[in-house]
What we know:
Elements: E1 2-6, E2 11-15, E3 26-30, E4 34-41, E5 46-53, H1 54-63
Antiparallel strand pairs: 1-2, 2-3, 3-4, 4-5
Amino acid sequence: MFSIEHEFDATVITLVDDFAPLREDVIIHAFEDVVTITQFDPENDRKHSITLSMAQLRDLGAALNLPEGVYTRAP
């Protein structure tokens, strides 16, 4: 299950794990120039965040549909 909310400066996507063993929600903030992915770690009682540039996000999307290898994208 997931939800999508549009805020003033970002689109917020929350991914909820529906299957056992349940994992913490993943929250994605899509800003104009970066995307931040956050997940709470209950073992350490803290949030972990990753920030991707838009170019990294495009590469990730492309990589999900490609076989193993090393690639470059045309500008």
